[in-house]
Design brief:
Blueprint (H helix, E strand, L loop, with lengths): L2 E2 L2 H11 L1 E7 L6 E7 L2 E7 L14 H10 L6 E5 L1
Parallel strand pairs: 4-5
Antiparallel strand pairs: 1-2, 2-3, 3-4
């Protein structure tokens, strides 16, 4: 399942990034995105734990994140932040 709750992350960094929403992990763990809500805006903080970058990952992730935003009604307040 690509979207899961990470309660430890929520407790550790919520003060810095806002209200924790959910964590996305791509199929081969090349991409991780932690979603946080700040006011009306939901930001997906995208990172590449395997050391790849946005231009070299092969796991799809952008469409999955936008689909999640649409499904949960915040597509107009959604931002991707590449880390």
């Amino acid at each position: 399942m690509p979207f899961q709750n990470d309660q430890q992350l929520a407790a550790d960094v919520a003060d810095a990034f806002g209200e924790y929403v959910i964590t996305f992990t791509s199929s081969h763990s090349q991409v991780r995105a932690d979603l946080f809500r700040r006011g009306r805006i939901v930001e997906a903080h995208v990172s590449f734990p395997t050391g790849l970058d946005a231009g070299s990952v092969t796991d799809p992730y952008v469409s999955a994140l936008w689909d999640y935003a649409r499904k949960h009604g915040f597509q107009d307040q959604f931002k991707l932040v590449l880390s």
